[in-house]
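Q: Please design a sequence for this.
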């Protein structure tokens, strides 16, 4: 499994990462999209989920199920700067931040394709799949 890190200035940097992060600092914050839970690894923002509505402990248990070998440590002070950037939701107010993306080669190829989309442009999943030359995945 590989990973990529992306600066919010649209520059993509390949970063060799382990299958999952060793530890993730997490915190819950309010956002324009509703409550969000953020996870920060040593490499940058690696997880972001909207609240499920079942509570933080449930949401955290889902993260632990997905990444059972990862240590999850509560630390809102580490996630707050990312939450602030997300809450601003304005490109001119967002300073560069590193995001660490974990996934299979196929998942990361989808992410790379999506990161190449110009701001404001949308594309269906089927169109993205064609870009990564896996049309049978749609």
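A: Design:
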């Amino acid at each position: 499994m590989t990973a990529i890190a992306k600066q919010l200035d649209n520059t993509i940097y390949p970063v060799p990462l382990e299958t999952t992060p060793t530890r993730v600092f997490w915190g819950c914050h309010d956002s324009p999209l509703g409550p969000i839970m953020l996870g920060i690894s040593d490499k940058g923002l690696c997880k972001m989920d909207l609240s499920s509505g079942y509570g933080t402990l449930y949401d955290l248990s889902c993260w632990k199920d997905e990444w059972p070998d990862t240590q999850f440590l509560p630390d809102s002070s580490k996630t707050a700067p990312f939450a602030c950037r997300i809450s601003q939701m304005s490109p001119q107010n967002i300073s560069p931040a590193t995001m660490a993306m974990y996934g299979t080669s196929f998942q990361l190829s989808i992410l790379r394709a999506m990161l190449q989309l110009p701001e404001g442009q949308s594309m269906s999943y089927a169109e993205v799949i064609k870009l990564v030359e896996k049309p049978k995945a749609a």
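Q: Thanks. Anything notable?
A: Residues 2-103 form a domain with the Double Stranded RNA Binding Domain fold (CATH 3.30.160.70). The first strand starts at residue 2 and ends at 7.
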